[in-house]
Amino acid sequence: MDSAILSLLGAFLLSIMGLFVFIWSMRKGLLVENPRAASVIFARGEIGKVDDPALLEPAQARLQAAAAEDGSELHVADPDELRHRVAADRSSAFPVFMFVAFACLWLVVGSLAGLVSSLKLHMPDWLVGEAWLTFGRIRTVHLNAVLYGWITNAALGVIVWLLPRLLRTPLVGAMWVMLGGALLNTGIASGIGAIGAGWTDGMEYLEIPWQIGVFIAAGFICIVGPVLFTLVNRKVESLYVSVWYMVAGLLWITLLFVVAKLPGVHTGVQQATTNWWYGHNVLGLWFTPISVGSIYYFLPKIIGRPVRSYNLSILGFWTLAFFYGQVGGHHLIGGPIPGWLTTLSIVQSMMMIIPVVAFTINMAGTMWGRMHLALHSPTLRFMMFGGLMYMLSSLQGSLEALRSINQVAHFTHFTVAHAHLGAYAFVTMVLFGAIYFMMPRVLHWEWPYPRLIWLQFWASALGIGIYFVGLTIGGWLQGLAMLDASRPFMDSVAVTIPYLQWRSVGGGLMVLSHLIFVGHFLAMVLRFGPARTGAALFSPSKAPEFAHGK
């Protein structure tokens, strides 16, 4: 039977199954709102109390005053539940610290490599004396250091810290998690060294040779086990939506990486298809679930208000899982692959509007009447900025899959701008906010210079703004020039030069923000500034007194 017919028949059967599942869920009342599940991130009596550990006590009081509602009354949070939370934090503290420290290291390495590669686009004769500094290698070093080194380590830190809190149980197998982190970062360091030496597998996002990729796969597997055991030993009845996102994301990236790196299996056209199946899914089924799950935890936690609709959050999760799998095929429009495959990818790209709209409506409803709190809370600013960029980058991605837009934007800097809108403006900004929230609880120490958080946010936001706008305009002009048969190819290169220079300006601001961030983290580790109460790593073994918002 023709593969296109099989595909359509499979989609039809899935639709029928989905209809029956929907009818069954209606009969069972599964679509009735579940306020108990939405409130599981709070201890009893804690709703209404704001929480931003990046703030010192006076600023925390101002945030609480700004969040006060007429007729509302604050209650004392249940001390037993707070003790369970602190115990959960202690159980995960060393692995979380390890992942965040590695993430900071790779953020600096990747950022500097990215700035060098950006400058080379309009200064091609700069730093050409060494092979590892050529554009093809240094840009790939940047890509792998940022995607695997920075984002993956930071994401794993968030997972390992949040799950024991949400499941109200200590992390099971912390030593296995740390072994997994060591294997993962051994693979990343070795892979980046191999790329610099010219040894790669030659596929975008999969450049690390499979012989080294074995270490990364083993690292993920070592982390999956403890996460699942912690899930099995949970002490909560209702699983918060962040648990769904994060456990699924960890399982997805492990499966994706193992399948994509199988040696000698993917060749020819199938290799290109597998490449973009992995390349897009590493964003949509790894970075996105972790970032969206983080927003669903940190944003309500900061403002002291449960998420507006728990069912919308679950709808967003399942529609992401169902529609995202084949989105990457739109990168192969016009390539030697079956037409039905690209058409399926375009359809699924447009269907991705559903989880994005569900998330946007939910977050807008949750923040309704409390948008002004972003003026007081630095962590909330990162979360709100990241959530807004998730909406914009996802909608842009869906439109970019359309053949009419893809015809102009494909193979241009427009696509690079879009990738950074997702991976940086959305994912990285959310991870910055998560780390600002987590580390005072992990290190038992305040952020020593709160004004640096404000400075880092605006340097990052302004940098990615200049970067995105410049490359979007330059990339579109580049695409139009390439489609004009009357113009020589070099016109499409020359037209981008001013915009590539602006790209380097934006990239320079982003690198500055990263140096501020990492420097502030080091100052915190070295014990600059005041101590705090109630964190995990270097605190006494005795359960501490409870300060603001454990």
UniProtKB/TrEMBL annotation:
GO terms for cellular component: membrane. Keywords: Electron transport, Membrane, Oxidoreductase, Respiratory chain, Transmembrane, Transmembrane helix, Transport. It comes from the Bacteria. GO terms for biological process: electron transport coupled proton transport; oxidative phosphorylation; respiratory electron transport chain. InterPro entries: Cyt_c_oxase-like_su1_dom, Cyt_c_oxase-like_su1_sf, Cyt_C_Oxase_1. Gene3D superfamilies: Cytochrome c oxidase-like, subunit I domain (1.20.210.10). Residues 276-550 form the Cytochrome oxidase subunit I profile domain. GO terms for molecular function: cytochrome-c oxidase activity; heme binding; oxidoreductase activity. The chain crosses the membrane at residues 6-26, 93-116, 145-163, 175-196, 208-232, 239-258, 278-298, 310-327, 339-361, 373-392, 421-440, 452-477, 505-526. Signal peptide: none annotated. Its EC number is 1.9.3.1. The keyword Methyltransferase does not apply. This is Cytochrome-c oxidase. It comes from Acidovorax delafieldii 2AN.
